[in-house]
Every structure is written in C-alpha cells, then in structure tokens.
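Below is how a single chain appears once it has passed through the pipeline. First comes the sequence as given, then the structure the pipeline wrote out for it. We keep one example in the README because the format questions we get most often are answered faster by looking than by reading.
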Amino acid sequence: MPSKAREGAPAELEGKRYLSRSASIILLIVSTGLVAACAEFLVNSIDYLVDNTSVSQAFIGLIILPIVGNAAEHVTAVTVASKNKMDLAIGVALGSSIQIALFVTPIIVLLGWCLGTDMSLYFSLFETVALFASAFIVNYLVLDGRSNYLEGTLLIAAYVIIAVAAFFYPSCGNLSSASGPHDGKIC
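Resulting structure:
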C-alpha cells in the first residue's frame, strides 16, 4: 500500500530521497578538493604545452582556461537558454564574467603577494584591447534588454576573432623591441 504524503508536502516529493546535511557538506568538500587537484595538474601542464607546441600563453590564458574553468556556468547558461529563460541565461553568463573580473582576479593577485609570488594586474595592449572590445560589444547588445540570433552570432564572431588573434599573438620571447622594453617579468 503506498504511503500517504505528509500534510502540505507536494505529492511528487514523496518517493525521492535526499542527502543529509552532513553528507552534503562532506560531498562538497571532497568535490572541492578534487577540483583543486585537477586545477593544479592543469596549471602545472601549461608550461610544458607552451614549450612543446606552437600554442601561445595568451591563447591558453584567454581561451582554454576560461572554457575549462567555467564549464559549469556554460552548461547552465545553455540549458536555461534552451528553456527560453533568456534573462537567467544572460545573468549567469554576465554574472560569472563580472565575478571573475571584479572579485577573483584581484583576490588572486593579493593572495599571490601574501605568498611571495610576483603577480600584477598589468595587461598588455592586446589584452586591454580585447577586454575593451568585448565589454563594449556585450554592453551594446545587452543594453536594449532583448536578444536575437544576429546578436548571438555577433558575440560568437567576436569571440572567434579574439581567439584567432590570441592564437597568433607572439609569445614573450618572440616580441620585437619595437613594441617596447620587455624585461622578461611582464609581457
């Protein structure tokens, strides 16, 4: 005989089982540790990839790491957009970008200083132009509060242009002296 639902509880929740609070916290801590270990392996393999392939450090930092690091946000935005909830999809995508730009990056630099690692918020001319152009295009397209396929195509085209430019952007060792002095620390 089926069990009766509690008074006021939805009928669809009757057969579902949930994790306890302590099991959820333990699972979250274990997942965070595994993600941290994977991130450490990924970061340690960047130097090997740059040294042994023609992929530049700018391409890895601007294209590959953001795609890998924000995979969950990308999947969430696409899933929500496929359900025609564009406000939430745009909010997830822009919120993630704003969080990285305004919170995570400065905190990482401050933590680097505390740990004795030489870090700065210096951006090269290419990175500055790419950041300004992408912020300008996103602001212009989101300003009216509506979206269509043409605007989405424009955003994808801007991303592809920045990705191709980053792929062919010269590494620190290949920069000419005409672009300014480079002491090897910042390029």
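The longest helix spans residues 86-114.

See the next section for the split statistics.
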